[in-house]
Design a protein that fits this description.
Layout: H1 8-22, H2 28-32, H3 37-42, H4 49-55, H5 70-91, E1 92-97, E2 110-113, H6 120-127, H7 130-133, E3 136-141, H8 146-149, H9 156-173, E4 176-178, H10 185-197, E5 201-204, H11 222-230, E6 234-240, E7 256-262, H12 273-285, H13 290-299
Parallel strand pairs: 1-7, 2-5, 2-6, 3-4, 3-5
Antiparallel strand pairs: 6-7
Helix pairs in contact: 5-6, 11-12
Length: 300
C-alpha cells in the first residue's frame, strides 16, 4: 500500500469504492493499517456484529464543532475586524483583484489557492468581503499539529504550544484539520459536508505545502474529489509575493507587498480527480497578478 504513494483522499476514494463494490462497511481504523492487497481483501468480508465490536478503532481526530457556536462566531468575527486583519495589514499591503467573480456564484464554494506562506490564510481573509470571510473554513494540515493529536513522545511545552496553536486557528479562523497520510479522511469529508450544509465555504491549499520561491507545484486530487462529491463550485485563487514577506524558513516577517486574485468559479463532475485537479491548477496558474506581470517586465 505504501508503495502506491496514495494520498489520504485517494485512500478514502479506494475505501469507498470497496464499500460500494462489495456492499460492506469498512472500518477506517482497519483500513488505515492495511499494508498489503491481502489486507484489503480481508476488509471485503461483511463484518459480523461481534467482530465489528472488537475491531472498530476510534478515528484519531477531534473536529472543532465548538468554534461554530454563536459565541465563538461573535468572538471570531469581532477579532478579525478589530485586531487580526488590521495587524496583518501592518505587515503586508495587498492588491486584490477578481472580486467581481464572486458575484457570479453563491456560497458555499471551495476556494482553491496556491500556497506560499503562513500568511496566506490571513491574506485571503483580508481580501474577501465581510459576508464571505465570516463564513469561511480553511483546511489546515493535521500533521502540523501532531503533538496535539498524538501527544505521546512530545514534551509538555511542545504539547501546550501546539494545542494552543490548534485552538487559536480553530477559534479565530474557523479552521479544521485535514489529514494527508493518516486515518480520518472520510470523517473529514463528512465534516466538510456539514460545513457546506451550513452555508460555509471551504479554503484548501491543494499543493499540500508551501513553496520556496512562489512557484506553483502539482495540485493534489483531494480538492477535486471534495468538490465533486459535495457538489461545490471551485473558485481558483492565486497568491503572489507573500513568500517575500514571510518565507517558510523565516521566524519573523518582513513588511512587503503581495496580491490575491480570484478567478471565475469552476464546476466539476465525474471521478477523474487527477484531471480535474489539473484543471483547477491551470486556472490558478492563469491568474497572473500585477506583481507577477511587473516582475516579468523587469526581467525582460
Amino acid at each position: 500500500m505504501d508503495e502506491l504513494g496514495l494520498s489520504s483522499l485517494e485512500r478514502v476514494e479506494l475505501m469507498m469504492a470497496i464499500e460500494e463494490a462489495f456492499e460492506v462497511t469498512v472500518d477506517e481504523g482497519r483500513f488505515a493499517t492495511a499494508a498489503t492487497v491481502g489486507d484489503l481483501q480481508a476488509l471485503t468480508e461483511p463484518l459480523r456484529a461481534d467482530r465489528a465490536a472488537t475491531t472498530m478503532v476510534a478515528e484519531p481526530i477531534d473536529f472543532p464543532k465548538w468554534n461554530r457556536t454563536p459565541l465563538a462566531r461573535v468572538v471570531r468575527n469581532a477579532s478579525l475586524s478589530t485586531w487580526i486583519l488590521p495587524g496583518a495589514r501592518l505587515i503586508m499591503t495587498l492588491d486584490v483583484h477578481g472580486l467581481e467573480h464572486l458575484g457570479d456564484v453563491a456560497p458555499p464554494v471551495i476556494f482553491a489557492s496556491n500556497h506560499q506562506s503562513h500568511l496566506d490564510t490571513a491574506a485571503i481573509f483580508a481580501a474577501l468581503p465581510r459576508r464571505w470571510r465570516n463564513n469561511l473554513a480553511p483546511a489546515m494540515l493535521k500533521e502540523f499539529f501532531r503533538a496535539h493529536f498524538f501527544p505521546e513522545g512530545f514534551g509538555l511545552g511542545t504539547r501546550i504550544r501546539t494545542g494552543a496553536s490548534y485552538v487559536a486557528a480553530s477559534l479565530f479562523f474557523n479552521a479544521f484539520p485535514l489529514p494527508q497520510r493518516e486515518g480520518g479522511t472520510r470523517q473529514t469529508l463528512r465534516y466538510a459536508g456539514e460545513l457546506a450544509g451550513q452555508g460555509q465555504s471551504i479554503l484548501i491549499f491543494p499543493e499540500g505545502k508551501r513553496t520556496d520561491a512562489g512557484e506553483i507545484i502539482t495540485f493534489q486530487p483531494g480538492v477535486a474529489m471534495m468538490a465533486a462529491r459535495l457538489g461545490l463550485p471551485v473558485v481558483p485563487v492565486r497568491i503572489d509575493g507573500l513568500y517575500r514577506i514571510l518565507h517558510h524558513s523565516w521566524t519573523f516577517p518582513r513588511r512587503g507587498r503581495g496580491s490575491v486574485k480570484f478567478g471565475p468559479a469552476i464546476s466539476l463532475t465525474g471521478n477523474d480527480y487527477k484531471a480535474m485537479a489539473r484543471q483547477i491548477e491551470q486556472a490558478v496558474r492563469a491568474l497572473l497578478s500585477l506583481i507577477t506581470v511587473t516582475e516579468m517586465w523587469h526581467n525582460l
